[in-house]
Amino acid sequence: MNWIGLYTLIRREVERTFAVVIQTLVAPLISATLYLFIFGVVIGSRIEDFAGVPFISFVFPGVLLLSIINASFASASSGLYFMRFSRAIEELLIAPLSYFEMLIGFVGSAVARALIVGTLILGVGVLFGAVTLVDPFGFFFYVTAIAAIFAMLGIIVALWAEDFEQLQVLNTFVITPLTYLGGIFYSITFLPELAATITRANPFFYFADGIRSSMIGYSEADTAVGLVIILGLVVGLGVLVTELFRRGWKIRG
Questions:
Q1: Measured between alpha carbons, how far is 110 from 104 in angstroms, rounded to an integer?
Q2: Is the pLDDT of residue 233 over 80?
Q3: Which of 248, 251, 253 lies closest to 82, judged by CA?
């Protein structure tokens, strides 16, 4: 393992995060604060405690999930796309890094950005009195694994995209709708049976439920199914991205 090369790649991407701190850190912090105020304070004050906790504590894991997804996806997709756009990818290809190490570098930097954003939002949640944590190890696992999944999706989109507009296609038309329909701001017990059944077929439901169960101890999904989905996506996407790098898809020739 080329530890120096990995450290250099991750440091480069993390420094890029702090170079545009308004966009990468301040903007998601403001968005999360508004979500908590609207759904937790304005609406939550009119709703009785749910699952034994204030409604704001039930909503907070969804707010955190949304921020983690956006941070990790944006970090990986923009970082790799701009390397392609500026032809800096050629320098990376001739560096003494294996394709797996390239994967770890891009995913590691995206996860780092997601963890920084997540930590800031946890701070906001504490100010709102919305944070509880019943399973710290489970919480860290879910946050890290989910950030890795969307980092790898970001890499795939960055390889596929031919312009800035295409870079946002998956996020706009797939990720965002599935996120909002995955129970991040509501319980499936609020839904008619058909809608609840459809929600259970949405993998984002298991992402939200995993973080929520580790924070407040309340779960609406089958934990085993959720773990299979999450671990399957991490391994499957990892193999796919490594193979795309090996073939040089959109980055060679």
A1: 10
A2: yes
A3: 251
